[in-house]
Amino acid sequence: MHFSQKIPDGIPHKTLFKISSSMPYKISLFIHLLVEKICLFLVVALVFSEICIVFLRYIYDIGFLQLHDFALYNFSALVVFSIVYTFGCNKHVRVDVFRENQSIKVQQQVDIIAVVFFLMPVFLLILYWVWSDIYYAWSIFEGSRETGGLGGLFLVKSTLPLVSLLMFIQGACVIVRRGKYLSQIPDSLAASSNVEAHH
Amino acid sequence: MSITAIWLLILVVTLLIAIMSGMPVMLAISGIPVIIGVIAAFFGHFDLSFFGAFPQRVFGIMNNSLLIAIPLFVMMGILLERSKVAERMLLIMASFFGGDRAGLAYSVLIVSTLIAASTGIIGATIVMLGMISLPALLKAGVSVRLSSGLICASGTLGQIIPPSIVLILLGDQISNAYIEAQQNIGNFAPDPVSVGDLFAGAILPGLLLVLLYAFYVFIHNRFIEPEPRVTNHPISGAKQENTAIQQSISIQEICTAFMPPILLIIAVLGSILFGVATPTEAAAVGVAGTLLIAAANSVNAVNWLKKLILLGAIAAFSLSLLISYDISKIDLSSGSLVLDYGSVAAIGLSLILLSALVFSSHRLVKDNILRDAISQSVSVSGMVFAIIIAASMLSLVFRGFEGDEMVAHLLSQIPGDKWGALIAVMLVVFLLGFILEFVEILFIVIPIVGPVILAMDFNPIWFAIMIAINLQTSFLTPPFGFALFYFRSVAPKSISTIDIYKSVIPFVFIQIITMGVLVVFPELVTWLPTWIFS
User: Fold this and answer.
1) For the segment B319-375, what is each residue's pLDDT rounded down to a tens digit?
2) Which residue has the higher pLDDT, A150 or B121?
């Protein structure tokens, strides 16, 4: 895990959002912040329901299928949403044996190639092939596999095409920004935000 | 060479180029198979409808309740790191041993074993050991040779000592591979392999490693370097005041620093090993316990909160006693509620525990620790999930080109029947460990070679533990081992990279010896799981 570039600490995201004039950056940041909120909610709900499950099962000897399903649904959504979040933080693992010696320009070119040739086809392909599954899930309002479980599985499944779409947009923003990830703030902002960070 | 073999070769070569280019690995291992598959389809050598199975695979990963343990264990590790529990243990151990260099070296080993038994993240452990214990070790006269090697090696113990994320992911992959292998040879009801099996199987080999490390420290101090080595390494300043060692230390301080993590380890590991809880449930217990420990260690924790947390911990343990001795008569599943002393006590105790949890979380939210810990565990988990999903795309296309049959054929060509094949697989995993992280290796290599190897009459638990130790060795081996990079980033400049390389070589040999011992005595792995789960 190599965490090199982070969203600069000390600058509130809201400030960045307000003072930025670059539209792709704003869109990308908006998606990132939204996904962050969703993930925070999902983790809290997951931890809370898992602790409840353990508590109820071992102390009161009782279990609810709905609660198990609730935990699993939260986890399922977390699996896909966390990928968008990690992409926004630029924390997807890289092998940086050669990257360390590449100039920033080459690094950005590699990132553009990665998005155009790999990210976009993969998530378009998911969008294309997942369609029939999602259509079917919605047509029967698919619920839990267990009888007596929680309904709403069709909504959970729909997170996959949603996330594919979000990844596509986030990828497009990287291209428009010439290979800059969200974690690298626009040049126009770098100067002013440094000033703000010192206050 | 058949036409699919050529496509496979193109796939592997382009994959390596893409990975080495420095792009996110998950984009390389999902994108290259898609591109190669589409191009091959133009020539009529690949069936595009293979891709149709991909969304189902992703749904399968999303629905895999075994993986729930991963974000939970990651969060537990990050919370423990943030709350500086391990740092305090190291400092107290260091002052307890004072200037005694052997004692200090053993204490580093003991503390890293405890950290390994409570989390499974190796990078953070090595960085912390390097910053806190390296200065103390050098000051006490332990040579650079011993101290750097010891820190790198004991920092990677988290991979093998349960609960480790490596073992959870291995458990998932090995059980799939084992079932497939057994079905191929006609056994349609194989005994499933669980994560609990792997945890139990890893304990003795993990302890064996710790013992051998300790033995090496002993030999080194007695015979190789009998005199303390006065080293003059300027120690990077940032952490210096923290490492100031107190002269006297009371038993009470030792207890307050060591008891909470040890109790947590007993609760988490014990509940899995004695078959009471699933890994996910144990991880939930772990997160709850870590919330208490982290809040109690918070600088802003007021006195009543510390007392409440202590009460909560006592309540948790008395509750487990009440339940195991059947004193509490609450059984809501049958609708019976006998209000005797036991049941009333159980209700009271759970209320205390719950309020301790609520107030601890509140404290951590106020301290801005909880939110950070959650977002960090989301980004680490996101990295793991992305690799898992991407690797399933790779293995899908690999099978589309009949790569699995080719690998099986290749492995059967290796001389020395099943041992030859095993050694070949181990070598591949070892070499891949230089460039890839364990998640990629497990999810790319195990689905391909696992079914072949496990059809050769190897015990699946034993095979999994061998892979885990092998990966750990690979992370230690110069010049590419990940552990060395982590250590290099915190070690003072005066310690040369060559010194670091030389220092880990004895430990690499210990790893190899351990694997040899496991080959000769496979019971070291298989005995505990059968004893516990029979």
Assistant:
1) 877 777 776 666 666 666 666 777 788 888 888 888 999 989 999 888 888 988 899
2) A150
Check if the beta carbon of residue B410 is closer than 8 Å to that of residue B426. no
**Interface contact B31-A63, CB threshold 8 A:** no
Nearest-by-Cβ selection for B54 from A84, A117, A129: A129
Residue B243: pLDDT over 60:
no
DSSP B48: G
* Cα separation, B497 vs B150, whole angstroms: 15
- pLDDT tens per residue, range B246-284: 556 777 878 888 888 888 888 888 888 776 788 888 889
- Using alpha carbons only, what angle is made at residue B315 by residues B313 and B316, rounded to the nearest 5 degrees? 65
Identity of residue B401 = F
Strands B330-331, B336-337: pairing is: antiparallel
**Average pLDDT of the residues of chain A:** 83
Print the SS3 string covering B471-524: HHHHHHCCCCCHHHHHHHHHCCCCCCHHHHHHHHHHHHHHHHHHHHHHHHCCHH
What value of ipTM does the predicted structure carry?
A: 0.89
Out of A36-45, B65-74, B75-84, pick the least confident.
Answer: B75-84
Q: Where are the alpha helices (DSSP H) in B185-278?
A: 195-219, 251-273
pLDDT band for position B135 (cuts 50, 70, 90) = confident
Size of interface A-B (CB pairs under 8 A): 209
Triad B438, B462, B479: Cα angle to 5°? 35
Residue from B47, B50, B68, B75 whose CB has the most chain A CBs within 10 Å, to mutate? B68
Looking at the DSSP bridge assignments, the partners of residue B336 are B331
SS3 of chain A: CCCCCCCCCCCCHHHHHHHCCCHHHHHHHHHHHHHHHHHHHHHHHHHHHHHHHHHHHHHCCCCCHHHHHHHHHHHHHHHHHHHHHHHHCCCCCECCCCHHHCCHHHHHHHHHHHHHHHHHHHHHHHHHHHHHHHHHHHHCCCCCCCCCCCCCHHHHHHHHHHHHHHHHHHHHHHHHCCCCCCCCCCHHHHHHHHHHHHC
Cβ pair B301, B376 in contact under 8 A: no
Report CA-CA distances (Å) from B225 to B103, B143, B217. Answer: 15, 8, 10
Asked if the Cβ–Cβ distance from B378 to A94 is below 8 Å, we say no
Q: What are phi and psi of B12, to 5 degrees?
A: -65, -45
Look at residue B309 and tell me whether its pLDDT is greater than 70.
Answer: yes
CA–CA separation, B497 and B485 (whole Å) = 10
Dist CA B184 CA B453 (whole Å):
12
In the beta sheet, which residues pair with residue B24?
A94
Minimum CA–CA partner of A157 in chain B = B59
Q: Which of B46, B54, B62 to mutate to test the interface with A (most CBs of A within 10 A)?
A: B62
- How high is the mean pLDDT in each 10-residue block of chain A (199 residues)? 40 68 84 93 94 85 87 95 93 79 88 94 94 90 80 91 95 88 69 47
Instruction: Let me know: does B63 contact B398? Beta carbons within 8 Å.
Output: no
Name the residue facing A82 among B54, B331, B385 (closest C-beta).
B385
Task: Provide mean pLDDT across the span B219-226.
Answer: 81
CA distance B292 to B259: 13
Share of chain B above pLDDT 70, in %: 91
- Which sign does the torsion angle of CA B309, B315, B318, B324 carry? negative
Specify the DSSP class assigned to residue B224. Answer: I
Query: Is the pTM higher than 0.90?
Result: no
